Amino acid sequence: MALHFERSEFDNRLARLLAKMQEEKLDAMLLFAQESMFWLTGYDTFGYCFFQTMVVKSDGTIVLLTRSADLRQAQLTSVISDIRVWVDRVNADPTLDLKELLVELDLLGARIGVEYDTHGMTGRVARLLDNQLATFGQIVDASYLVSRLRLIKSPAEIAYVERAAVLADDALDAALALIKPGADEADILAAMQGAIFSGGGDYPANEFIIGSGAEALLCRYKAGRRKLDANDQLTLEWAGAYVHYHAAMMRTVVVGDPTHRHRELYNACLETIQAIETVLKPGHTFGDVFDMHAKIMDERGLARHRLNACGYSLGARFSPSWMEHQMFHAGNPQDIEENMSLFVHMIIMDSDTGTAMTLGQTYLTTSQAPKALSRHRLEFLNR
């Protein structure tokens, strides 16, 4: 089998999940997040774009309900022994197949947790599911139960995160070798992704962000490429990905002569991320990280130019986003604990002057100060 973890690792994860289910008084879980399935069993696919779910009972029973195209995928990549296939057909309603499976598993009248907040659960699927199970038992939203368990990384997971960080650094090296006046964004992007593939990495869970000129102020990928001017700015956000584990980075590279505003915004980014490092440790919350970000930015008159979040948890993720649920935003009570992999980004987009500046890297939390996973310093990049 194409497993990336020892069987004992999966056994430990199942034990943690069952303990949490007992705490929440759940008789079963319906997993729809591909990340949850991968974490629990190793199951690796993009078949979640269609209906599939993994049933986990409180006694440890695991059953996957999926399509025929993913039968062998599950057999090869996971520790799942019980795989059921629903049949593609006109007017198919796989939630009916699921209901029959739940009856077979003696779950009629049970308290069942469902992962609703995931890309593997469309609005249509949710409506079909709720319709089938309306009188079946007690259905509760358990969208974040596995997600929170995944926040703390095992030693094996940390090794993959650290390898992803090396690949992210390699991608930056490849980009910096090309960035200069007249350089084509297409070549830069190809070099970055190529460095990750050459290093044994994976496709990232979402597209790399690349934009220059006015488009350097965008925080999302968009189609279209341009060549860099003699004086320009290039914003890059990317992630090394290894066994689906991500380590993200973000930089704005100034091409040619930097403006005073570029320098000013870079200093604000650097000061803020250094201040965040003092609270990115146990004893603080995700909300504390954001509060530090907002305090420094706002004191420098940058409230209109900053974002309402400054990072998030990273781990094994699948398209369309490498972002975890847990983010650094106002009021988030999530505690910071040891062995979390967290991406901190400073993003300042000054539309008044058309100036972009970003700075970001992934950290591993420890019992004390966080460990930056990048070998690159947080320096001002000018080409």
TrEMBL record:
Domain named Peptidase M24: residues: 161-366
Organism, as annotated: Rhizobium mayense
Pfam families: Creatinase_N, Peptidase_M24
PANTHER family according to UniProt: AMINOPEPTIDASE, XAA-PRO AMINOPEPTIDASE P-RELATED
CDD domains: APP_MetAP
Protein name: Xaa-Pro peptidase family protein
Lineage: Bacteria, Pseudomonadati, Pseudomonadota, Alphaproteobacteria, Hyphomicrobiales
Ranges where the Creatinase N-terminal domain occurs: 13-152
UniProt-listed InterPro entries: Creatin/AminoP/Spt16_N (IPR029149), Creatinase/aminopeptidase-like (IPR036005), Creatinase_N (IPR000587), Pept_M24 (IPR000994), Peptidase_M24B (IPR050659)
